[in-house]
Design goal:
The complex is a heterodimer of chains A (493) and B (415).
Chain A: E1 18-20, H1 25-30, H2 39-46, E2 64-70, H3 75-94, E3 98-103, H4 109-119, E4 123-127, E5 144-148, H5 151-154, E6 162-165, E7 170-172, E8 188-190, H6 193-197, E9 208-211, H7 219-230, E10 235-236, H8 242-249, H9 253-271, E11 279-280, E12 284-288, H10 295-307, E13 312-316, E14 330-332, H11 341-352, E15 356-359, E16 372-377, E17 380-385, H12 392-402, H13 405-408, E18 410-413, E19 418-425, E20 428-435, E21 441-449, E22 455-458, E23 465-467, E24 469-471, E25 476-484, E26 487-492
Parallel strand pairs in A: 1-2, 2-3, 3-4, 4-5, 5-6, 6-9, 9-10, 12-13, 12-14, 14-15, 15-17
Antiparallel strand pairs in A: 7-8, 11-19, 16-17, 18-21, 19-20, 20-26, 21-25, 22-23, 22-26, 24-25
Helix pairs in contact in A: 2-8, 3-4, 7-9, 8-9, 10-12
Chain B: H1 14-22, E1 40-44, H2 52-62, H3 67-70, E2 74-79, H4 103-115, E3 120-125, H5 136-141, H6 147-151, E4 157-161, E5 172-175, E6 186-189, E7 198-204, E8 206-208, E9 212-214, H7 216-219, H8 226-229, H9 242-248, H10 270-284, E10 289-294, E11 297-299, E12 310-312, E13 316-320, H11 323-333, E14 348-350, E15 368-370, H12 374-380, E16 393-395, H13 398-401, H14 405-409
Parallel strand pairs in B: 1-16, 2-3, 2-7, 3-4, 7-10
Antiparallel strand pairs in B: 1-13, 5-6, 8-9, 10-13, 11-12, 14-15
The chains are: A alpha/beta (493), B alpha/beta (415).
Chain lengths: 493, 415
């Protein structure tokens, strides 16, 4: 059993704040083909499990280290790494830090399990593609955390802690990507906010770890990684690039400043852990078929609708019912291809009562020429797309025309390089924003349905400030964020 | 006043190009047309944070003053927002720094017009939204405009999205008044373009994928209401974009009740049609004052989505009463020959076959195409002169103002 000597709190994986702490000779072996690895980084990796590196964790909230443990190398090389990790893990535990071993494909599961037990690790992280049943061979009740590339397969998992492969959060110009777009084209944003929120299917929060190594990275990249995972309640598995690692190893001033920025953002997230209990906000429901044939398309609806700043909540196809739709004003049902008779009945009833249903051509009578057609149904309407499946980018863009601002609930202005995420608890609303550009955004206007008396802006860089709120006259509240450097959260009450 | 004509030595090709361009204006010989000439002011301005109110006051003084023209009047500004369906943004930059006119320019102009006694100031643009009704102010908020600040710069400041009827019950039909029209005899427009006493085109100084440059004349393409011109059916294979199928390519005629083309059998090539169409629009809704914002701008296209475009800081403002002359001077400050003809920069264009109907590539498959020079078409129509030797240039000499757009763009576009 791996958890035998852990402190009680360390066994609570929900509280783990993870950092990839790859290192040791085995890590160098794993990266043997990386000819661009600089000499100073090579040395830093080789000596990373010297006790001195643990001091980097002081004044950070990081309390869980992921150490290079097994890559399926020769027995002697593996044994030496296990011994190194065992000693380093002992020192880490003395500081109250949980330790997980990173296992790569090719590692012998029985040998890994035995060595992990010997090193008293708190668990194992599987990084890569493993044969089916591999985790089971690592013994029970060891905590095994696979980093999953296929988010759809993980979404309905009952595991208490999920780890998923993410993307590097960044904003890029379409023209720089060789993509021709119109005069009003907006930056292309890669984000994990939608991904993290896509695991929030129930009411309870559970930790979602996002794995992605920004290499090479700037200070801005690192803090964006932290915020990008944390905004919807996840945690970035802190991962430093070779240059930063080398700088930290030699205690370079600039590297230490970057490290402190990462720590400040992590601390900000943990200081506001209560925000994780806020439920996602949205009057648009997106029906998600967890067993659908096109999981990539399904994910793109979630990704791109979020990128258009349209708030939504998820409805699992298996849970679609009149009751589950009762709190929505619009439903994107393109994942139902085709809808069953009972699903169609539910959606028709929803539209007839005034709702909007957005469906693919399998709904029937798709337009011959236009991308979609709106068909009145009772007090509401159905928008039927021609293309099968409807293009996620088009659907996401069309949402801005299909949904009135009051139906969207949240309107945010001047955020072409940012993504917003709204959540609610009781009578409070939390609107979080992340700026993916390297420069601050001036003058972001936010409107939200409802009358709120106060708004307070929280950022990692500054003390909270109260913002003026203004009733817009149509039951909405408006406020102005004067400047947004990176991560901002506005709490409306 | 400083006469700078003699300093413009880079334009040695004027004569040759002028001959080439003259061949374009086949319908009207330049000799038959008396073209208005009026002063044009050029300024170098390095930042939007400078005192633009004082800057515009100085430039307006240089062109003879505008107080007597705006006092007690309704001033309408058509601002160049490139359709504004999105935000036209590059990462970390506002649209005002790239493809839109900058809010500080519009705010300063509002303040100056108010100081000069304008009774009412209206800010206009047609946005490309499928569903009409979004207030123009919200579109502007999307680029961080201080809308309330602009509203407070004058006693009456109004915004209107002119892509449809707006606050009116019917469209206004404005006939081309200057000479004979090229393509359309009249246009049906939002009432705002008729209900004003003094009309200002506030445009960005930038390149254009199809027309070489976007300046004050091109800016007026945006006054055509998509919601009206798009009412007719879209034939199979026609462009999904209303303005493209009606105006660029002439694939369909305007809907019933809207003035149709003079000759539906005329040339359908957009490089031929658009400069003439823009001239017609400027003949129907004459520009009383042209303002060109080139303090910062996108280089290489009209928006951020065009491959090879990049942000630049030309540091230019150009102001004039005559749109043709103002655009001609602006072209010179952009490093272009204002009398350039087909296939000369910036009128030699690359047309990506993916984005254009095959019939626009002439001969078939040829991606290098031309546009006619809009300023010269305006000159041919009698709207003004594009001949620098006849324009009273004031302010900063062109040789000291030039920001060579082509040099900053060169090598970026697949031309």
């Amino acid at each position: 059993m791996l958890l035998s000597l852990c402190p009680v709190w360390a066994a609570d994986s929900a509280r783990w704040i993870p950092a990839r702490w790859d290192g040791g000779p085995l890590e160098l072996t794993r990266r043997a083909k990386d000819k661009a690895l600089p000499a100073d980084a090579r040395e830093a990796i080789a000596r990373w499990y010297e006790p001195a590196t643990l001091s980097l964790l002081e004044e950070t909230p990081i309390n869980c280290l992921l150490l290079t443990f097994s890559i399926g190398a020769g027995a002697e090389a593996e044994r030496q790494q296990h011994q190194l990790v065992k000693e380093y893990a002992r020192l880490a535990r003395e500081r109250g830090i949980a330790v997980l071993g990173i296992v790569y494909p090719g590692a012998d599961p029985e040998a890994v399990a035995a060595a992990a037990h010997e090193a008293q690790l708190d668990g194992l992280v599987l990084d890569g593609e493993f044969p089916a049943g591999y985790a089971g061979k690592l013994g029970t009740p060891a905590l095994v955390i696979p980093i999953t590339r296929d988010a759809a397969s993980l979404r309905t998992s009952k595991a208490p802690l999920l780890a998923v492969e993410g993307v590097r959060p960044v904003a890029r110009n379409l023209s720089d990507m060789g993509i021709r777009a119109g005069a009003s084209a907006e930056p292309w944003i890669e984000s994990n906010i939608w991904l993290v929120r896509s695991f929030r299917l129930g009411t309870e929060w559970r930790p979602v770890w996002v794995n992605q190594q920004p290499n090479p990275s700037s200070e801005g990249d690192y803090v964006r990684c932290v915020a990008d995972a944390a905004i919807a309640g996840g945690r970035w598995m802190v991962a430093i690039d070779d240059a930063l690692r080398a700088g930290l190893f030699r205690k370079d001033t600039g590297a230490l400043a970057t490290w402190r920025s990462i720590a400040a953002y992590l601390t900000f997230g943990e200081d506001h852990a209560e925000w994780r209990s806020f439920a996602p906000y949205g009057n648009l429901g997106i029906v998600l078929d967890a067993a659908g044939k096109n999981p990539d398309i399904s994910d793109e609806y979630l990704n791109l609708v979020a990128r258009r700043q349209v708030p939504y909540r998820l409805i699992l196809r298996s849970e679609l019912s009149a009751a589950s739709l009762s709190s929505f004003q619009a439903v994107l049902a393109a994942d139902l291809a085709p809808p069953t008779e009972s699903e169609r009945k539910i959606l028709c009833d929803f539209a007839e009562k005034g709702g909007l249903v957005v469906a693919g051509p399998s709904w029937g009578d798709p337009p011959k020429d236009d991308p979609y057609a709106e068909v009145p149904l009772g007090k509401g309407r159905v928008a039927v797309y021609k293309e099968d499946p409807p293009n996620p980018e088009s659907v996401a863009k069309d949402m801005l025309d299909l949904l009135e601002p009051e139906v969207m609930g949240l309107s945010v202005f001047n955020v072409s390089s940012a993504i917003t995420y709204a959540s609610t608890r009781d009578k409070s609303v939390l609107v979080q924003l992340l700026n993916y550009a390297g420069r601050p955004i001036d003058r972001v206007t936010v409107r939200f349905n409802g009358n709120f008396k106060t708004a307070r802006l929280y950022t990692p860089e500054n003390a909270p400030i109260d913002l003026s709120v203004r009733a817009t006259g149509n039951g909405r509240t408006e406020l102005l964020i004067p400047k947004l450097a990176a991560w901002g959260a506005v709490l409306l009450k | 006043m400083e006469d700078v004509r003699s300093t413009f030595s880079r334009r040695d090709l004027l004569t040759v190009s002028g001959l080439a361009a003259g061949a374009l204006a086949t319908r009207r010989a330049a000799a038959d047309v008396v073209v208005p000439a009026s002063p044009v002011s050029v300024a170098k301005v390095v930042s939007y944070d400078l005192d633009l109110v004082a800057q515009f006051e100085q430039m307006f003084d240089q062109i003879g003053g505008i107080g007597h023209l705006v006092r007690g009047k309704t001033v309408a500004m058509k601002v160049n927002l490139a359709g504004a369906s999105g935000r036209g943004r590059q990462v970390g930059l506002t649209a005002g720094q790239t493809s839109w006119v900058h809010p500080n320019v519009v705010g300063a102009l509002t303040a100056v017009f108010a100081k000069q006694g304008a009774r009412r100031i209206r800010i206009l643009e047609s946005t490309f939204r499928k569903k009409y009704g979004t207030p123009l102010e919200d579109t502007l908020l999307n680029d961080g405009w201080d809308v309330n600040g602009i509203k407070s710069a004058a006693s009456i400041v109004e915004f209107e999205d002119t892509n449809g009827l707006g606050s009116a019950k019917q469209y206004s039909t404005l006939k081309v008044k200057a000479g004979q029209p090229f393509i359309f005899p009249a246009f049906s427009l939002n009432h705002s373009y008729e209900d004003c006493d003094f009309f200002v085109s506030v445009a960005k100084m930038k390149n254009h994928e199809e027309l070489g440059v976007t300046l004050s004349m091109k800016n007026l393409f945006g006054i055509t209401p998509e919601l009206l011109y798009g009412l007719g059916p879209k034939p199979p294979g026609a462009s999904q974009w209303v303005r493209e199928r009606v105006f660029h390519y002439g694939q369909v005629q305007p809907p019933s009740g809207v003035p149709p083309e003079l000759d539906p059998a005329s040339n359908r090539y957009e490089g031929w049609r658009m400069p003439r169409l823009l001239t017609d629009i400027c003949g129907a809704r004459p520009i009383d004052l042209a303002i060109l914002d080139g303090i910062e701008a996108i280089i290489g296209g009209e928006g951020s989505g065009m491959p090879g475009t990049r942000h630049g800081k030309p540091g230019l403002l150009v102001v004039g009463r005559n749109c043709v002359s103002t655009d001609a001077v602006a072209m010179a400050t952009m490093g272009y020959n204002p009398r350039a003809g087909r296939h000369e920069a910036p009128f030699r264009l690359y047309k990506n076959p993916k984005d254009h109907p095959p019939e626009q590539l002439i001969p078939p498959g040829e991606t290098h195409q031309y546009a006619d020079n809009t300023a010269l078409m305006g000159e041919a129509a009698g709207l003004g002169t594009a001949d620098l030797s006849k324009i009273d240039l004031r302010g900063v000499p062109i040789k000291d103002a030039v920001y060579d757009y082509e040099a900053h763009w060169k090598g970026q576009a697949p031309v």
